[in-house]
Structure prediction request, 361 residues.
Amino acid sequence: MLSAGLALLLSGGRSSSEVMPKDDSLNALAKKRGRFFGTAVRTDKIWNDPAYRTAVIGECGSITPEVALKWDFVEPQEGELTFDPMNSIMGFAEANDLDVHGHTLLWYNSMPPWAARKILETRDWTIINNHFANVLRTYKGKIKYWDVINEPIEAGKRWDGLRDGVMLQAFGPDYIDHALRSARIYAPDAKLMINDFGFEYDTYDENDRRWLLLRLVEKLKKAGAPLDGIGLQAHLDLAKGSLASKKIADFLVELRNFGVKIIISELDVKEYDYALPAEQRDQRVADHAKQYLEVVLAEPAVIGLTCWGLTDRYSWLDATDGDYKRLRGPREQTGLNRGLPYDANYGRKPLYYTIRNALNA
Ligand code: XIL
Prediction:
């Protein structure tokens, strides 16, 4: 007997009861405006949770592996390549007509320790080339967008705003330019992106971050680096106050003027007060996202919207978890963060309808 997961995997992830008309999906609405709607996905949930699968297939035109492409996941030990989980996501995507967003080739937070050690020891770019070749060749022609660099910006440290880390230490500030050019060799037809967070609020840090990203894009474009797009993560946060709507709009125009496309790549809303009744919490989340989406979806360079998960059940923002709980105050404020379109039981929340209306506007 095949396990349910394996049987589904072999059938490409579609069971007859799940085939849904997609013309009313969030992606269908987005598509009318020339955009896509997508979500981050977890491999195990695709195979183990039918309601999750149904929601993803029913709403999305694009999926982003939440973990399965990160370097420490695909190559935990040097030469030990682990592509099975990603291949199963590709199978699911193909069977259900979903695009796949490649996240991510280089992220300081997902570099395997062996690679960090070797890079610092040898400063040999071959290590980067090998990694890019392994991943990009495997999915050549199948993945259109690649986050080549994730989270390169850090304000308040260096004049150029580049985050300190292994890549910067080993190869200097041009490592981003080099990485884009290397990626281009192995993925000649893909759109190459830089993805980063923290561009939404009127804080000292985020004002700086917007400026620093613009300077980075300007420099790369002037140098002729193959940069096609910018991913704005959009991890909104109710603790950070009101959105810098005008500044965001200007920032998007400046990005567009550099000739890059923009994807809102990881939308969710971190809550502040977990003690309120659920309806109030959901309304706060939706109202905040509405303000944000009104600004970003008015910008023609924005070509897609991806949420960092569809359901609160599997959000990376776990209110009961470690650091996050410590930062957010009293112990009794536990439970799931309610910052995604579906609640933990796949009920559509106000945020779902906010996204619908914004995509449709
Ligand atoms: C997060 C995942 O959601 C977690 O499951 C994982 O443990 C760590 O990474 N910015 C990014 C994403 O670009 O890759 C991160 O994803 C969330 C923050």
Notes: Strands lie at 36-41, 62-65, 99-107, 145-150, 191-196, 229-232, 235-237, 261-270, 302-307. The radius of gyration is 20 Å.
